[in-house]
Amino acid sequence: MESVKEIIVIGGGLAGCEAAWQLAERGHAVRLVEMKPIRRTPAQVSDNLAELVCSNSFRSRDPENAVGLLHEELRKMGSLIFRMADRNQVPAGGALAVDRVKFSEDVTRAVRSHPRIRVEHRVVEEVPETDAPVIVATGPLTEDALARSIARITGAERLHFYDAIAPIVAADSIDRSIAFAQSRYGKGGGDDYLNLPMDEETYRAFVREILAAEKVVPHDFEDPKYFEGCLPIEVMAERGEETLAHGPMKPVGLVDPRTGRQPYAVVQLRPEDVGRTAYNMVGFQTRLTWPEQRRVFRMIPGLQNAEFLRLGQIHRNTFIHGPALLDKDFSLKSRPDVFFAGQITGVEGYVESTAVGLLVALAVDARLRGIPFVPPPGETALGALCRHVSGEAHPPGYDYQPSNINWSLFLPLEERVKKGERRARMVDRARRALEAWIDANVERVERRAEAMP
Fold first, then answer.
1. Quick one: which of 65, 179, 389, 451 could link to 194 by a disulfide (CB 3.0–4.6 Å)?
2. Closest Cα to residue 403, out of 284, 143, 283, 227?
3. Model confidence pLDDT, tens digit, residues 263-285
4. Residues 31 and 91 placed together within one structural domain of the fold
5. Enclosing domain of residue 288
6. At 298, which CATH number?
């Protein structure tokens, strides 16, 4: 293996920590550069690494869901992030949710204690020029000066849109005479969520107030582009009076024990910590002003006396045009020593960011060992993300936007199958494809490393 200086990883989020860990585990020296505590973004409140700023959920654990399959593949690849997520689970029905504070503390402890990782705290304003690989994993909140540096070396304007995060309420401020514990269709523990039911009159009045409430107005130079899978509730409400009732407030699979009937609409609350001292308002990401959030959300039955531990807010999401700028190993076509990992590549979500961090680590490791990087096959969830970032999953002229993992990114099945059998077939195919890829590539690298002096 070629001797190089420390590999530089810029950004101590999920992707950066995963990339640094995977490289260190493969024998490389890594310098992980994180700007906290010198500087924080508006969405950050902790100085720990791998801070979860939007939600405490890694989404569905069901392997017949694309993200659940990605969970499974990341565990099989030895993901640090998923090891710590599994260690710090909180009840969330069919989802994998974590105690965000303990999770972040455990990731930080693991990274800092690794003998081949050095954590450095400073603000990086320029993509460095060095004889070692550089991994940019600065996420959706890339610091302005560094974003300008990235724009210069890519020769492209920075792309951006705006995400929003949901409020968190104190558990003891929720009216338990109204809220009822129940998961949709009894999944998981059956009582992992608290539910706040609304009748039709209450729901329609609530929607009217959301539409009338004061919103945070972007600056003149800002062009908000929201990720379709994480729309602010007021944007959804603007699309029609029933949109919320068929979206985050859908009541299907829930029965109000007070009436014995399905409510017209429901607000779900998900535990934020093991002790269930705080709850996240599921799907209630918003750009309402803080005073309006307190006023409007206290209209929800059960939250009339709510104590908000965190209010919703918008934040910038910066990403590059992966298909135009990156090679298949996530390195810049114009500067092959610079790699990009995580959300900045154009993926969306904790799980996807972690996955790209792991993939980039494998690519850098292959580069330093002098062997080609072979991406996972497109039948797998990991390979599907590669197909998205490379543009292979999209038709010509596709308007590249951040995406969660979904079945449309996978290679399609060659054979025709019945509608109800498609997911099971794709999961079975993915598992076999990943095993074959590991046998042909990952284990080959490990055998070569063991043979080296």
1. 179
2. 227
3. 999 999 998 877 788 899 999 99
4. yes
5. 164-316
6. 2.40.30.260
